[in-house]
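User: Okay, second chain of the day. Same drill as before: sequence in, structure tokens out.
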Amino acid sequence: MRRRTPFRAQLRPAPLHRRVGIGAALFIIVLAVSGLLLNHTDTLKLDQRQVDSSLLLQWYGIDMPDQASHYDSGSHRISQLGEQIYFNSQPLLSSKQPLIGITSNEQLTIVALSNTLLLLSHEGELVERLDTLPQGMHKIDAIGSDTDGNVAIRQGERMVVADQELLSWQAAAPQLNIKWSQASQVDAAYSKNLLSNYRQQTLDYERVLLDLHSGRLFGQWGPYVMDAAAVAMVLLALTGLWRSLKGRARKRC
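Assistant: Same drill. Structure tokens below.
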């Protein structure tokens, strides 16, 4: 007479079933925890919390710039950290051109990059961007203003000065007294604030969790691994349910 397999033994997971479950469990935990945190992004302010971990920044290939440049013009300060330009420590725009200096007149604050003039309101709003330099100049070595508050730029020994509206430029007289914008030093508090803004713009925890949830954090094959883990868990659930129903049917017999 054939002995009937005990019901508990029928429900005992097969070795392959158990191994697949253990292998997929870690990824499912990652999916569940990251998904739970992402559901509360606004409450946790994940999109406002910048990543300070050097390990994560390196993983994303984000290198902190070794040097920063700063220029002052009265109550305004322009800074460059990496390719990011900041006005009074707030992000203004991104540019690969090096920062040359800053000056201002009654109407505008003028920022010079190596090949561009940025015309800003005194509140830091970009009014106009001049990518074509006056008088056929090809680059800017310095920017400043004369004693009357007129903006001047220099390329080598060549200097030109603008009217108050910056509509017309003319060659500057050699004897014209111009105060050129000079690089300045900043205190530790400003430097820390600037670095914090740079990191916040570069990488926040919401993006990290999104990449973790999708698997993109682990490279180009990461999403496929997470997909495989999800599919494996679905199959495990279906096969487990099937084994349970099959065991119950045998018990009735």
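Residues 7-11 have pLDDT under 50 and may be disordered.

User: Thanks, on to the next one.
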